[in-house]
Amino acid sequence: MDASHTPHDITDRKNAIRSEMRTRLATLTADQRAEWSTAACARLIRSDAFDRASRVMLYMPMRSEVDVISVALEAFRLGKSVCVPRVEIARKTMNAVDISSFDDESMDSDALGVRAPMVGQEIPHGEIDLIIVPGVAFDMGGFRLGRGGGYYDRYLARFPRSTATIGVCFDIQFVQMIPTEPTDIAVHAVVSDRRAVQRDPSLALLAVQDRNLI
Hints:
Distance between the termini: 20 Å
Shape: globular
Structural class: alpha/beta
Number of helices: 5
Oligomer: single chain
Number of strands: 12
């Protein structure tokens, strides 16, 4: 937790960033979202972490998020396995479920308005090589601000830190610093439409041409 701030202060600061991000994202056109998503996904696809991964976990994008479906399609083309989150709201938990397509027969919107598999095998943590993580905002230290439910922080806390995690966002979602609490989990690297940054130089996660160390 930030040493000089109370939990109430941190919550207020997080909510202020969420409000600012809603304002920024509301100005984007459909063409900008598509162009910037393509650029961010290209960095993900050429990353060393993606190249090495046999199973990739990614999210089902909402309108305000980078559309990572092209990453999933490339993973399918390369013979990789793909899984996506399925949330159990009553238990406030999230698990990864294996998918092979995005059609309406296998996917539906959950109570949070996010598309999720209706059926599918849950994937054990040890079988996931790369987790691609969304966020409302990121800072250059890899800390992320989510929507406030804490699902990703609780989920990521169950993994060893050796599991590769890459956040993805539009470049306008970078902020100077995310207010943090002990339960907040930083990702190893963050990729946007304009840059890719990595916290730990000992981990070869990004493509050589994209490696900008934090």
